[in-house]
């Protein structure tokens, strides 16, 4: 997923909604534009002590890759970093299957493409295992992957050669032709983002799809690789500091606490009241506080619906006001 900068806390809040909604156990961000990364930034995107990460810093204000995964279901045994990629040797904790993931952010300049393909080839040669490659390759494979393009370029040939030389499969992109569109020019549209997989994955997990998701903070569509996710693990209860910022929450907790009529030893009463309080907070989070997140999710998908299709239209005045574009 391309994010076009993660320094902005507002962008991270939007990304967090998407990460929760899509339920992935591994997420790769490109163009983080971060030269320095802190745990605070990571937790603001995907919270939880089970979330692990590694990253490639940006060069100045350009580039940068961040890989995050759910350590409850995936064990990352080794990491390799390059100028354009971050590779992970991953072991599924349930099935025991080992596989490689390569998060990529391809160079824009044609002169650097040869080094890009060499780096990816060397990366895949590190481990003799099934591979996923995913990210912004910053190039297209065929003319029809760019609106208005009719000529085959050298860059297209090199991309196709790389795919063929490594026997990779370019899965269908469900429901979209393009993954990138320039915001100010609806005629500039290309398929720059994709997953490529080893043939063995097509046998292990048939009917795998690349699913385009609503845009969040970038002019690129996030892509979900669906069909390879393991069973989710129920997240344990965790007190969220953001609840303390909600007016009246502290008073509500006091009201709940004093309402519990529990008899028994002091330790039993404390344990029972904490259990009751947990239930009330969970219900409050879902029924009251959770409405904020639901509204954000609804707006995210509504905006995604407006952007879908090959032709884009200018938003009317009410839509501009609704989505902050006025």
Automatic annotation (TrEMBL):
InterPro entries in the cross-refs: Endo/exonu/phosph_ase_sf, Endo/exonuclease/phosphatase
A GO MF term: catalytic activity
Cross-referenced SUPFAM superfamilies: DNase I-like
Domain Endonuclease/exonuclease/phosphatase: 19-220
Record protein name field: Uncharacterized protein LOC104213303
Source species of the chain: Nicotiana sylvestris
């Amino acid at each position: 997923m391309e994010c076009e900068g993660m320094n902005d806390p507002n962008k991270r809040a939007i990304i967090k909604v998407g990460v929760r909604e899509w339920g992935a156990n591994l997420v790769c961000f490109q163009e983080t534009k971060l030269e320095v990364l802190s745990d605070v930034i990571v937790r603001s995107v995907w919270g939880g002590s089970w979330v692990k990460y590694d990253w490639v810093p940006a060069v100045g204000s350009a580039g940068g890759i961040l890989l995050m995964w759910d350590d409850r279901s995936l064990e990352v045994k080794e990491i390799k970093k390059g100028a354009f990629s971050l590779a992970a040797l991953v072991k599924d904790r349930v099935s025991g299957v080992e596989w490689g993931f390569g998060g990529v952010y391809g160079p824009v300049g044609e002169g650097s493409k040869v080094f890009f393909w060499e780096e990816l080839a060397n990366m895949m040669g590190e481990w003799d295992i099934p591979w996923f490659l995913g990210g912004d390759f910053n190039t297209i494979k065929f003319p029809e992957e760019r609106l208005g393009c009719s000529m085959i370029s050298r860059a297209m040939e090199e991309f196709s050669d790389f795919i063929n030389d490594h026997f990779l499969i370019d899965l269908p992109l469900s429901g979209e032709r393009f993954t990138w569109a320039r915001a100010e020019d609806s005629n500039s549209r290309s398929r720059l983002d994709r997953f490529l997989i080893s043939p063995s994955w097509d046998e292990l997990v048939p009917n795998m799809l690349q699913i385009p998701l609503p845009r969040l903070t970038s002019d690129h569509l996030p892509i979900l690789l669906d069909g390879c996710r393991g069973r989710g693990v129920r997240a344990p209860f965790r007190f969220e500091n953001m609840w303390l910022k909600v007016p009246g929450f502290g008073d509500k907790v006091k009201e709940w606490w004093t309402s519990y009529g529990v008899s028994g030893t002091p330790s039993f009463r404390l344990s029972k009241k904490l259990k009751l309080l947990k239930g009330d907070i969970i219900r409050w989070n879902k029924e009251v506080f959770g409405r904020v997140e639901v509204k954000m999710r609804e707006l995210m998908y509504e905006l995604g619906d407006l952007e879908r299709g090959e032709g884009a239209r200018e938003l009317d005045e009410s839509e501009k006001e609704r989505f902050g574009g006025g």
